[in-house]
Write a structure and sequence with these properties.
Belongs to the aldehyde dehydrogenase family. It comes from Geomonas silvestris. This is NADP-dependent glyceraldehyde-3-phosphate dehydrogenase. Keywords: Oxidoreductase. Helix 4 packs across helix 5 (130-156), helix 6 (190-201) crosses helix 16 (496-502) and helix 10 (299-311) crosses helix 11. The termini are far apart. The chain folds into two domains: 72-284, 3-Layer(aba) Sandwich (Aldehyde Dehydrogenase, Chain A, domain 1); 289-482, Aldehyde Dehydrogenase, Chain A, domain 2 (3-Layer(aba) Sandwich), CATH 3.40.309. Helices cover 37% and strands 23% of the residues. The chain is globular. The strands form eight sheets. The chain has a seven-stranded mixed β-sheet with strand order 17-20-21-14-13-23-24, sandwiched between helices. Strands 10-9-8-11-12-26 form a six-stranded mixed β-sheet, with helices on both faces. The longest helix is centred in the first third of the chain and has 27 residues, at 130-156. The protein is of the alpha/beta class. The protein has 17 helices and 28 strands. The structure holds glyceraldehyde-3-phosphate. The site of glyceraldehyde-3-phosphate has 9 residues, from loops.
Length: 539
């Protein structure tokens, strides 16, 4: 660690003009039924994890406030969404696909206008570096645009019908109802869009709740939602999730849960629904993605990928590498280079040029990470990198810990933060056994050069995880690739095209194959109500 901790926190006056929040932003309204309704109830104070120096110790900055809705207000938002859907007879679910596309395209243009404001809030609210915040914003919009392209393609193939076993069938896709959309704090905009946008374009109506952190950044977008969609199609709920969400689920009016967060919260939400087995869930959940570094790996490449895979956005990605298995014959070299890599990372405030290590938004996280490190140390591991685990307020300097063994909590628990556990291995079976026994099953990375061995490893992992990355870190992108997981890691698949499928249902218009029925079906296909999005058999 090159800088002293005190040097990381600038004074208010040193913040460049473009990144300042001159006065706290008070958002005392929320979107419901096509209006930005004033909320006169209690507000939740929003503190930034970004620390500034001032008199005394570094202090977190108050950056704004957002509504703490009552259960009644939240229920009303859900009822409004249910009315806008009206059992599939509302304006939005019956609107033509072309019109829906036009609404979403208008929305995209309006959101684009807000780039600077949203990026600034991403930095202040969740401590994301300028570069990563810009990347998140741009990715959210490109996800939206790719979704529209995928939708046009679905619509293009809609003028077909199939004949099988004497039956003529036209396969269509229709919406499901009201979708409760909730993204996570690490990608509050992008990952909210990955459920909200496909759910919306397929004709569902929406209740969206921002995550625990990353709330204010939606304020600049509420007017765009209001202006671009019919009343009641998109509604927002703010407040304490533990208070407002169980009653929403218990009402039975949520048809689909689109949630990215922990499996514990997802399980509790599902259990609160009166018919949990009928609730469709599209979930992105916990993961403990391992990297396996074989003796013949290109060490520089493996270190580079493991460094960025473990520490991008301080390790706060579900796809982050969360445990590294390194063959004993190369582990010392690997540790030395990885420790040097961590030492070369720049720490500081999000707008600082080239910064990688920034403050963590969850106030309880530094202590949680410190506990994991203490637990590992008490069972025989050491912190390898100078300054690893140093803390100040919301800031936690990355810790590389070695040798990690199954008795330690960090071996099993998802850290979701900047602690990198390294496990030495002698026999490849140890690493495969770890993946098989894991309660998670999202992705894995393998580093090596022997093509046959890599092929064997892929075969061993293919029934355990959903993506195997060869000589590269784990990641969700590109968004056209399926994104899913086994066990506690996910439910449903979320590529751009898959998301259109999971937020809709296939229906069939069928008739016996007679000359008369062929004419009738041909006419239906030609005259089809365009609010029915139809597809061919494969889609
Ligand atoms: O937290 C998971 C995000 O989807 C990360 O996406 P990414 O792996 O492409 O950075």
């Amino acid at each position: 660690m090159k800088e002293s901790l005190a040097a990381l926190f600038p004074a208010e006056a040193e913040i460049p003009e473009a990144f300042r929040i001159p006065a706290p932003l008070t958002q005392d309204y929320y979107l419901i039924n096509g209006e930005l309704r004033r909320w006169s109830g209690p507000l939740q104070e929003i503190l930034s994890p970004v620390q500034l120096s001032g008199a005394g110790a570094p202090a977190a900055k108050l950056i704004g406030a957002a509504p703490l809705l009552s259960v009644e207000a939240a229920r009303e938002a859900l009822e409004v969404a249910a009315r806008a859907y009206s059992n599939g007879r509302g304006e939005w679910p019956t609107m033509s696909v072309g019109e829906r596309i036009r609404c979403v395209a208008r929305f995209a243009a309006a959101v684009q206008e807000k780039r600077a404001e949203v990026v600034r809030l991403l930095m202040w609210e969740i401590g994301k570096s300028l570069k990563e915040a810009e990347r998140e914003f741009d990715r959210a919009l490109s996800y939206l645009r790719e979704t529209l392209e995928a939708l046009k393609e679905l619509d293009r193939v809609s003028s077909r019908f199939v004949i099988q076993q004497g039956i003529i069938g036209q396969i269509r896709r229709a919406p499901l109802g009201v979708v409760l959309c909730m993204g996570p704090y690490n990608f509050p905009l992008y990952e909210t869009f990955t459920t909200l946008i496909p759910a919306l374009v397929m004709g569902n109506t929406i209740v969206m709740k921002p995550p625990r952190f990353g709330i204010l950044l939606f304020a600049p977008l509420l007017e765009a939602f209001r202006a671009c969609f019919p009343a009641g199609v998109v509604n927002t709920v703010y407040g304490d999730g533990e208070v407002v969400l169980p009653p929403l689920m218990a009402s039975g009016q949520v048809d689909v849960l689109g949630f990215i967060g922990t499996h514990k919260v997802a399980d509790a939400l599902r259990a609160a629904h009166p018919r949990p087995h009928r609730l469709r869930c599209v979930l992105g959940l916990d993961a403990k993605n391992p990297a396996i570094v074989l003796p013949d790996a290109d060490l520089d490449l493996a270190v580079r990928e493991c460094l960025s895979g473990s520490l991008t956005f301080n390790g706060q990605r579900c796809t982050a590498l969360k445990i590294l298995f390194v063959h004993r014959s190369i582990v010392e070299q690997f540790l030395e280079r990885l420790a040097a890599g961590i030492g070369s990372l720049s720490c500081g405030v999000p707008w600082q040029e080239g910064v990688t290590v920034t403050a963590l938004p969850e106030p309880e996280k530094p202590e949680f990470l410190a506990e994991l490190v203490r637990d590992a140390e008490s069972k025989g591991a050491r912190v390898v990198n100078p300054g690893g685990g140093t803390r100040s307020g919301s800031f936690f300097y990355p810790a590389l810990i070695y040798p990690v063994s199954p008795q330690m909590r960090i071996y099993h628990e998802e850290q979701f933060g900047p602690v990198i556990p390294v496990v030495p291995f002698d026999d490849l079976r140890e690493t495969i056994d770890y993946v098989v026994a894991s309660p998670y099953g999202q992705q894995a990375s393998v580093f090596g050069r022997d093509g046959d061995l890599l092929a064997q490893l892929v075969d061993a992992l293919v029934n355990q995880v959903c993506r195997i990355n060869i000589n590269s870190q784990c990641q969700r992108s590109p968004d056209s690739f399926p994104f899913n997981g086994r066990k506690n890691s996910a439910e449903g698949t979320q590529s751009v095209a898959d998301a259109l499928r999971v937020f809709s249902i296939r229906i069939v218009v069928a008739a016996r194959e007679t000359d008369e029925n062929r004419d009738i079906i041909t006419n239906i296909v030609r005259e089809r109500k365009s609010h029915f999005l139809s597809t061919d058999f494969m889609l």
